[in-house]
């Protein structure tokens, strides 16, 4: 994603929602990296919208934990610690394995086909080496699982957790063998769902999330400043 991609060229009724989606994507794709200061005037210029729309979008992003108030009340892209990421992925495993068990129990073939379609798109982007598109489609894959639970509480809780780590997903895919291993894991999840095996689906999804957690936590720990002994 580039700065030019941020601009909202149409004049939609829900400008605030478009601004929110654009900024959320900009953070997820690394256009605005963790710790980057977000200046309201610059965002207005980039998006081509009013300050009111930008402020409303930023309030929502702050409620999602994607941005935070830094020193001197500056608004910055949130920085997750390795411990934060570990906890979020641990909660993801709890929520998403619950969701996939319910998805299988509902035996909704339309939901199964949507999950299969998301996996096929993941495999296509992986083959092309298009990591940003792959990362975005992986998010869609997880959202399909959450939606398939049939529970608003499970869906909303899971989506909130996904938003917190959206930018980390792309970074983790750059780790050696993570995409190749991930493809095998996604395939196992889809196969288990298609077979109607809730236990296997939950086991495969749980393993996938834990493997992602290991890659991301290791990456974040490597980026954290070394602590000197007193």
TrEMBL record:
Keywords: DNA-binding, Transcription, Transcription regulation. The keyword rRNA-binding does not apply. It holds the Pfam family GntR. Residues 13-80 form the HTH gntR-type domain. It comes from the Bacteria. PROSITE patterns: HTH_GNTR. The keyword Transcription regulation applies. InterPro entries: GntR_C, TF_FadR/GntR_C, Tscrpt_reg_HTH_GntR, WH-like_DNA-bd_sf, WH_DNA-bd_sf. PANTHER family: GNTR FAMILY REGULATORY PROTEIN (PTHR43537:SF45), TRANSCRIPTIONAL REGULATOR, GNTR FAMILY (PTHR43537). This is GntR family transcriptional regulator.
């Amino acid at each position: 994603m580039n700065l030019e991609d941020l601009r909202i060229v149409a004049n939609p009724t829900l400008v605030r929602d478009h601004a929110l989606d654009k900024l959320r994507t900009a953070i997820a794709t690394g256009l605005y990296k963790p710790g980057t200061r977000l200046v309201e005037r610059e965002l207005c210029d980039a998006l081509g919208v009013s300050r009111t729309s930008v402020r409303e979008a930023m309030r929502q992003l702050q409620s999602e934990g994607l941005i935070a108030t830094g020193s001197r009340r500056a608004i910055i892209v949130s920085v997750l610690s390795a411990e934060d990421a570990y906890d979020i992925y641990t909660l993801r495993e709890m929520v998403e394995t619950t969701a996939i068990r319910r998805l299988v129990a509902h035996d909704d073939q339309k939901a199964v086909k949507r999950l299969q379609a998301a996996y096929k798109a993941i495999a296509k982007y992986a083959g092309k080496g298009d990591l940003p598109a792959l990362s975005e489609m992986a998010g869609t894959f997880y959202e399909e699982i959450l939606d398939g639970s049939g529970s608003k509480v499970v869906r909303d809780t899971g989506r909130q957790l996904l938003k917190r780590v959206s930018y980390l997903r792309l970074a983790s895919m750059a780790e050696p063998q993570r995409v190749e291993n991930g493809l095998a894991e996604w395939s196992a999840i889809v196969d288990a769902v298609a077979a109607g095996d809730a236990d296997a689906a939950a086991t495969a999804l749980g393993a996938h999330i834990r493997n992602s957690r290991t890659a991301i936590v290791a990456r974040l720990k490597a980026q954290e400043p070394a602590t000197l002994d007193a």
